[in-house]
Amino acid sequence: MGTIVWLGSEVMFFAGLFAIYFTLRSTSPGLWEFETAKLDVPFALTNTIMLVLSSVTCQFGVFAAERMQSRRTGRLFQVGQWGMVEWFFLTYAMGSAFICLQVFEYAHLISEHVTLSSNAYGSAFYMTTGFHGAHVIGGLIAFLLTIGRAFAVKNFGHKEATTAIVVSYYWHFVDVVWIGLFMVVYVLK
Fold first, then answer.
1. Which CATH number is 2-187 given?
2. Which of 35, 56, 91, 117 fits 121 for a cystine, CB–CB 3.0-4.6 Å?
3. Is 143 exposed, middle or buried (0-12, 13-18, 19+ CB in 10 A)?
4. Which CDD domains match (predicted)?
5. CA pair distance 21, 172, nearest whole angstrom
6. pLDDT mean over 181-188
7. SS3 at position 63
8. pTM over 0.70
C-alpha cells in the first residue's frame, strides 16, 4: 500500500514537470520549433522501445518470483527456465543501456548548444528527461538490491517475491512516465 501511495506522489511530481514544460512551450513557440528540430526522433524511439521491452522482461521476472523461482533451473540460454534473477539482470541491462543512450543524446544536444542554461527549451528538456533518468537509476539500484536479496536468503519466499512485485510497480511507473515524455518531447513538436 505504501508503494502505491508513494507512486501517487511521484505522479504529482511528474505532473508538475509536464506543467512546466507545457507552460514554457506555450510562451516560446518559435524557440520550441527551432530547438526540437535538433532532436533525433528515431534514436529516441529506439531507446523508448528498449525501455518498454524492459518492462516486459521485468514482468517475466515477477512471474518467476510468484512461482518462487529465484534462479534458473536449466542452462543459461534456456530462457523458458529462467528465474527472477535472470529476468531482472536482463531488465537491469536494458535499463542501463537506456541511461547510456540518454547520456549519448545529451552529449549530442550539448554539441548543438542545447544546454540546461541555454534557454527555456534546454531547461525544460533537461529537467523533465533528467529527473526521469534519475528515477531510472533508482530503479536500477532497486533491481540490484532485489537480486542481492535473492542470493542472500536460504529460501526464496513470499517476502522476496513481494519485493520483486513492488520493484516492478516502480519500474512500470517509470516506463509509463517515459512514454508520456516521449510523446510530449519528441512527437508533439
1. 1.20.120.80
2. 35
3. buried
4. Heme_Cu_Oxidase_III_like
5. 23
6. 94
7. helix
8. yes
Distance CA 132, CA 17 (A): 10
Which of 92, 72, 66, 99 minimizes the C-alpha distance to 145? 92
pLDDT band, very low/low/confident/very high, at 46 (cuts 50, 70, 90): very high
**Residues 80, 43: Cα–Cα separation, whole Å:** 31
CA angle 115, 120, 126 (to 5 degrees): 45
E strand or H helix at 72, and its extent? none
DSSP class of residue 67?
T
Residue 53, burial from CB neighbour count under 10 angstroms (0-12, 13-18, 19+) = middle
Which range, of 6-10, 62-66, 112-116, averages the lowest pLDDT? 6-10
3-class secondary structure for the chain? Answer: CHHHHHHHHHHHHHHHHHHHHHHHHHHCHHHHHHHHCCCCHHHHHHHHHHHHHHHHHHHHHHHHHHCCCCCCCCCCCCHHHCCHHHHHHHHHHHHHHHHHHHHHHHHHHHHCCCCCCCCHHHHHHHHHHHHHHHHHHHHHHHHHHHHHHHHHCCCCCHHHHHHHHHHHHHHHHHHHHHHHHHHHHHHCC
pLDDT-derived band of residue 4, with 50, 70 and 90 as boundaries? confident
